[in-house]
Amino acid sequence: MRSLITLILNIIWLVTAGWSLFLAYVIAGVLACIFIVTIPFGVASFRIAGFVLWPFGREVVDRHRPSAVGTIGNVIWFVVAGWWLALGHVLTAVAQAVTIIGIPLAWANLKLIPVTCFPFGKEVVSSDDARAAMFPTAHS
Questions:
Q1: Residues 46, 23: Cα–Cα separation, whole Å
Q2: Where are the bilayer-spanning segments (predicted)?
């Protein structure tokens, strides 16, 4: 039942916001890949684009604490692209929250803002894997 709800939410998401947000991340990624030194920003943008296209059933987790280079990268990303993309999530969330069916979609939009602003040191995993990492079962 959970997978059916996840599928329905993802389809509604794709139609109402996913395609446009995905396109914004792809454009940011292509622009970042123009210069060799900014390719890591493009890779991060493409990674987020895949998550933004189909977010339900997946979560963002901290992979590790970003290194000094990753922290500097997060600051540069935030100044150049992160806050613009986050603003897109906020505006989309406000539009989605107008209807009752859109409230879960608006909440998903707001949950995307941390990875949008600071992508380095984050990883997209399935919700089941995220739960398993948080609550490992004890094997005796």
A1: 10
A2: 7-28, 34-56, 68-87, 93-110
Nearest to residue 62, comparing CAs of 115, 117, 131, 127?
115
Q: Does the pTM exceed 0.85?
A: no
Confirm if 56 and 9 have CB atoms less than 8 A apart. Answer: yes
CA distance 59 to 51: 8
Tokens read off for 120: 């380095």
For residue 75, give every residue at least 6 positions away whose Cβ sits within 8 Å of its Cβ, in sequence order, or none.
Answer: none
CB atoms within 10 A of CB 60: 20
Nearest to 10 by CA among 56, 59, 58: 56
What are 84-133's pLDDT values in tens digits? 999 999 999 999 999 888 898 999 899 899 999 999 988 888 877 776 77
Token readout for 117 is 């602003």
